[in-house]
Specification:
Elements: E1 2-5, E2 12-15, E3 19-21, E4 24-26, H1 32-39, E5 47-54, E6 58-64, E7 72-78, E8 80-87, E9 98-104, E10 110-113, E11 117-123, E12 127-134, E13 143-145, H2 168-171, H3 176-182
Bound molecules: dtdp-4-keto-L-rhamnose.
Length: about 180
């Protein structure tokens, strides 16, 4: 597994070593020991999630607060997405900045997102199956969200606004200015 740091503390891109042969491919999609050795981090994952979405679906930007904050290791099993995170860690120099990466079943990249980030993704392929590990359980009451198109965040989502499909909940999320007061 190859590990690449980003300009955000502990936000890490992981690319697995893939063994291709005449049958297809094999790779270790997650291994505790290797992850810890290469990243120096030791999240204890307790929940795996999988979702499927069609072209233009945007889920996010989501996070859980307080003791229920979640670190996530995210990847795409089928299709392609634009994965986006926003740093909500007030003490970091990257506070309020966003980071985007294309994750796909082809590139097999994984993004490790530490606690303290809002996370979302947009489906760029006809269909995408998204998979992620979390180091804390889902807790509805601790769930929060951030408006995906807040001009203050300036995220380039790459698709025309008319092509986007969002849940009602995600269409009505507060902006960064509001969230900032609550952090
Ligand atoms: C996230 C989650 C949802 N649910 C339920 C609640 C709801 O009825 C249904 C769909 O939930 P949502 O609409 O919140 O699903 P979704 O919009 O896919 O939410 C996810 O978005 C991405 C971007 C993330 O980063 C995740 O942490 C999570 O917030 O599934 C669980 O039971 N467990 C969970 O862990």
């Amino acid at each position: 597994m190859e590990v690449k740091n980003t300009s955000f503390k502990d936000l890490i891109i992981c690319t697995p070593t893939v063994f291709n042969d005449e049958r297809g491919y094999f790779y270790e999609s997650y291994k505790d020991t290797i992850f810890q050795e290469k990243t120096g981090l030791s999240p204890q994952f307790v929940q795996d999630n999988q979702s499927q979405s069609t072209y233009g679906v945007l889920r996010g930007l989501h996070f859980q607060i307080g003791e229920m904050a979640q670190a996530k290791l995210v990847r795409v099993i089928e299709g392609e997405v634009l994965d986006v995170v926003v740093d909500l860690r007030k003490d970091e120099p990257t506070f309020g900045q966003s980071f985007s990466i294309v994750l796909s079943s082809e590139n097999k990249k994984q993004l490790f997102i530490p606690k303290g980030f809002a996370h979302g993704f947009l489906v760029l392929s006809q269909k995408a199956t998204f998979f992620y590990k979390c180091d804390n359980y889902y807790h509805k009451e601790s769930e929060r969200g951030l408006k995906f198109n807040d001009p203050q965040l300036g995220i380039d989502w790459q698709l025309d606004a008319n092509d986007l499909i969002l849940s009602e909940k995600d269409q009505n999320l507060p902006d960064f200015e509001t969230i900032k007061q609550q952090l």
